[in-house]
Automatic annotation (TrEMBL):
Name of the protein: Cryptochrome DASH
PROSITE patterns with a match to the protein in the record: PHR_CRY_ALPHA_BETA
Taxonomy, superkingdom: Bacteria
UniProt-annotated binding residues for FAD: 231, 244-248, 284-291, 382-384
Single Gene Ontology BP annotation: photoreactive repair
Molecular function GO terms recorded: deoxyribodipyrimidine photo-lyase activity; DNA binding; FAD binding
Database matches in InterPro entries: Cry_DASH, Crypto/Photolyase_FAD-like_sf, Crypto/Photolyase_N_sf, Cryptochr/Photolyase_FAD-bd, Cryptochrome/DNA_photolyase_1, DNA_photolyase_N, Rossmann-like_a/b/a_fold
Keywords: Chromophore, FAD, Flavoprotein
Stated family: Belongs to the DNA photolyase class-1 family.
Function according to Swiss-Prot or TrEMBL: May have a photoreceptor function.
Required co-factors: (6R)-5,10-methylene-5,6,7,8-tetrahydrofolate; FAD
Amino acid sequence: MKTAIVWFKTDLRLQDNETLVKALSQSDQIIPVYCFDDSHFEITSYGFKKTGSFRVQFLIESLKDLDKNLRSLGSGLLILKGKPEVEISKIVLQYKAFKVFAKREVAYEEKQTEQLVQKELFKLRCEFETFSTSTLYHAEDLPFSIKDIPDVFTNFRKKIEKESTIRNIFDRPEHVNSIDIPEADYPTLDDLDLKFEAIDSRAAMHFKGGEDEANNRLKYYFFQTKKISSYKETRNGLVGSDYSSKFSAWLALGCISPRFIYHELKKYESNYGANESTYWLIFELLWRDFFRFMFKKHQSKMFQASGINSEKEIPKAISEKLIQNWVDGNTNEDFIDANMIELKLTGFMSNRGRQNVASYFCNDLKLDWRFGASYFEQQLIDYDECSNWGNWAYLAGVGNDPRENRYFNIEKQATLYDKDKSFRKLWLNN
């Protein structure tokens, strides 16, 4: 029996999962595994947890959903905890696996982990193959090589829209041949040195992890309510669940793929018509692609103070008090405070809020942007390393922005987007 391991990471789905499809086609049986990587639960050099409580709760819900769906096909999910290079090697030895299949990474730390795993597997004469499963456009279909990708989004978008096509999705497998997989044993929050935090009842949306929930949200936002047809007008909202698609948390863990969203959107457009709003969702998915390809191109530079803009002088200031006041929503700027309290108590913040609090952190407080990005990494349910660090670098003026100074006038923004103060009243009146 040819046994292969499918190492799930941030691709927690059965629909449109090339890694899973290729593993099934090349082996007699597979072992789906997920490893809680010890390094994901440490405190970073910026003083924040790499993964906070809200994100872990969403992750465990997503894994339980994946396990349930795999079991319905005759398989299941084997849960590991430790260093992936050690734990996956143990499973390879135990079951004499000939190959490990995994999602291809692009960000610096994730690439390092991937290389450590590959090195250990090489010693065991076990192959390691990765697949690009996270983007709307496949890296191989780009009209330029990675090193030649334009650093300005508009140039990237125009060329890609003109010269590239989006691939079809991979069907969900009908059956998965596996070894007998024991009931999944998930680490507790205590095991991960985290405390349970209940999500505040004022949350814009109560996210629940998993592919089933992702599909439910898509059906609701597209076909049941047709909210997608007014997305461009409402996307800068601050209160409630429907001003934006809210797909980001499921996209971050790969519970749904951007290509699946795209093809469902095309079905929607053929039934109900295309407009600026339906296009705008594709535009946002393109931004997501852009940041992933930037990380592939610039690698560790995206995490350095000067980013890809070595000319720019970066504030070296580290004021624990200023950072803590920002985290706690105690800056005396009511619009900033309301957004930061929402993030602290729910693990979510609107796109408009994120841009404002990041601009305030970099331009008004004049602090090292990486501390802000690191807090977001800990706190956001929808944390995605490329979008998070890419957007922070962009707002700090060291990323992909041709403009010299991306400064937000907080008072003007608050008046524009929270005219009646309903958002501020919601979060500032305890």
